[in-house]
Amino acid sequence: MPVNLFKWFARPHALLDAGVLSMNRRNLCYVSRYNKRSLLPLVDDKLSTKRLAEKAGVAVPKLLGVIQYQHDVQQLHKLLDHLSEFVIKPANGSGGKGILVITGRDGSDFVKGSGEKLGFADVKRHVTNTLGGLYSLGGKTDVALIESLIRADPVFERYSHEGVPDIRTIVFKGYPVMAMLRLATKASDGKANLHQGAVGVGLDMASGQSLRAVQFDQPVTHHPDTMQDFSALSVPHWKQLLTLTARCYEMTGLGYLGVDMVLDQNEGPLILELNARPGLAIQIANGSGLRSRLEMIETLKSGDNAVSERVTYAMTHFSHF
Questions:
Q1: What is the pLDDT of residues 101-158, one digit of tens each?
Q2: Is the pLDDT higher at 303 or at 125?
Q3: Which residues lie closer than 8 Å to 146 by C-beta, 6 or more apart?
Q4: Where along the chain do its domains lie?
Q5: 117-148 as b/e, with b when 16 or more CB fall inside 10 Å?
Q6: Cα distance between residue 200 and residue 287, in whole Å
């Protein structure tokens, strides 16, 4: 049975006994040990990740355009002129910063999911700021990606505020070990980022069924904006989702990886982005520690197990039911 982590925030020994993975242990025993530094740029840069995925035949949101340099900004009007919906994101951003989601047009204005209207000058300024490094890690110059807008699977319609839900899965040595659904809220400004107030819903590895939910690290039973009960929530296409996440091991060569996916109503499961240093709040959402699962994988004989075998193992051994 999953362990109740909520009552142990101030008890380090109890967390250790529960198999909770700390940030120091994550960095030392898993990120540093299983992720070669030379491979990190493949996932730190979203443009590199997209090109890598396309080469490997892994489904990703369609790339509509790339603005790499300030003089390229003059091509922005031509790129956006025929588009009524799109997403602009920094190639080296983190935590959802700098992502601009346009869901429609009103004359010459662009309309955000919240209903807010932006003129072309506003969008151009956003792209210019992106290139200048306003949203990038370390403030380094960046690249702006223009992607197709994802339309969330209707199953999530009542469970998210404006934004598109995503599924974060931790993959270790090619085995999916833990997953959660991240749902946008009014507090998170329509973004599926837990630090900004999105809801994290722990998911059973065998079925994709919801286990428990948290917002700001505190347990919740209903979405704070839609009031929808999380107990009936189940992610469809679950085995297909796990299979795609497991394939990211061969695609990147990284042993410890966070894979973010979305379910598009037309395209199905899509890889959104990868993270070589995924956060640890997934343990709170699941009410279980990661460390025991990672150690279980480490005891397995190394070999070239097929993706299907690794997925079956995860669904069998990491189920909460």
A1: 999 999 999 998 778 999 999 999 999 999 999 998 788 899 999 999 998 889 898 8
A2: 125
A3: 63, 64, 65, 66, 67, 79, 80, 83, 86, 87, 88
A4: 6-58+153-317, 63-147
A5: ebeeeebbebbeebbebebbeeeeebbbbbbb
A6: 11
Strands (E) located in the chain: 63-67, 86-90, 100-106, 109-112, 117-118, 144-147, 166-172, 175-183, 199-203, 210-215, 218-220, 256-264, 268-275
Paired tokens of 65: 């355009």
Residue 74 CA neighbour count, 13 Å, CB half? 1
What is the Rg, in whole angstroms, of the alpha carbon atoms belonging to the chain? 20
- 242 near 169, Cβ under 8 Å? yes
Helix or strand or coil: residue 9?
coil
Structure tokens at 195: 């630090």
Residue type present at position 32: S
| Alpha carbon distance 171, 249 (integer Å) | 8
Decide: 197 and 188 in contact? Cβ < 8 Å. yes
Angle at 217 between CA 264 and CA 25, to 5 degrees: 90
Which helix (H) or strand (E) segment is 246 a member of? helix 238-252
Q: Read off the DSSP letter of residue 89.
A: E
CA 198, 287, 231, 319 dihedral sign is positive
Is 258 in a helix, a strand, or coil?
strand
Whether the CB-CB separation of 220 and 197 falls below 8 Å is answered with no
Domain 6-58+153-317 class in CATH: alpha beta
* DSSP string across 186-200: TTTTT---GGGTPEE
Residue 109: both structure tokens together = 């204005």
- Annotate 35-50 with DSSP letters as a single string: S-GGGTHHHHSHHHHH
Enter the tokens of residue 149.
């807008």
- DSSP symbols for 102-121: EEEEETTEEEETTS-EE-HH
Give the separation between CA 223 and CA 192, rounded to whole angstroms.
13
pLDDT, tens only, 251-262: 999 999 999 999
